[in-house]
Specification:
single chain; alpha/beta; Rossmann fold; eight-stranded mixed beta sheet; 9 helices; globular
Length: 250
């Protein structure tokens, strides 16, 4: 049974923030871009450092965009990024996915990337998304599924250790395959799912990112194995991502 506790497994150290900040809408939200148009309002739930959010804001400008994240420390960098890009239609706010600070039926689009896998109550968060979406509005979700990763040489015991760590923190490393069911439970319709791999050209990048979390969890043997594995010239790490879009019915 999933514990009724949530700890964000990647943490918010510099390595984790830099890892997330390398993402963009083109690389991690491409499936949702066709659902955007100038003038639409949008919520990015779990926006992190804001690199995807600012791309989405550019796509819907002059429509208003809110980036929401429960870690206020990340939002300073997000605001700086938006200002550097000259975006005046986006704001960032600290808040919870279980209590979104928006009125009922007040936003046209909701996007959430790499959030649901860290939640103890994903359907409750989706119900909040349903509440704030306007009838006919679209939600876009993207989460990994640790059951479909490709690694060479194999590292099954290390991957198992990390998935157990995420589960102990209240998350679900296999949430990707459940997105369709969860959206249906939250009363969405027109659900569309897709799956693809993200291959890390530099395996040491993902290995170092995961190893830090294992070190913090007092699992140095697994962390060291990951770092050593990344030095293999034939190392391959391909991560499975499940994307979903759905509509709030009229």
């Amino acid at each position: 049974m999933t514990p009724d506790v949530e700890r964000y497994t990647p943490g918010h150290n510099t390595n984790a923030v830099d890892f997330m900040a390398a993402r963009s809408a083109a690389t991690h939200a491409g499936f949702f871009l066709p659902h955007l148009a100038p003038g639409l309002s949008l919520l990015d739930l779990g926006c992190g450092p804001g690199t995807i959010t600012t791309d989405l804001a550019a796509a819907v400008a002059p429509g208003r965009v809110l980036g929401l994240d429960r870690q206020a420390a990340q939002l300073t960098g997000a605001r700086t990024l938006a200002a550097r890009r000259g975006l005046t239609n986006v704001e960032f706010q600290e808040g919870s996915c279980y209590d979104i600070p928006l009125d009922d039926q007040s936003v046209d689009r909701v996007f959430s990337h790499a959030l649901l896998e860290h939640l103890a109550h994903p359907v409750r968060a989706l119900a909040e998304i349903h509440r704030v979406l306007r009838p006919g509005g679209t939600v876009g979700l993207r989460s990994p599924d640790w059951g479909g990763f490709l690694l060479n040489p194999p590292l099954d015991d290390v991957i198992d250790a990390y998935t157990r760590l995420q589960q102990a923190n209240g998350g679900d490393p296999y949430v990707g395959r459940k997105l369709g069911r969860f959206l249906r439970e939250a009363e969405f319709i027109d659900i569309s799912l897709d799956v693809h791999y993200e291959r890390y050209a530099d395996p040491s990048r993902i290995a170092g990112y995961l190893a830090i979390q294992l070190d913090l969890a007092e699992q140095p043997v697994h962390a060291d194995r990951l770092r050593t594995w990344a030095t293999d010239p034939d190392a391959l790490f391909a991560q499975t991502w499940v994307s979903a879009t759905a509509t709030r019915p009229h």
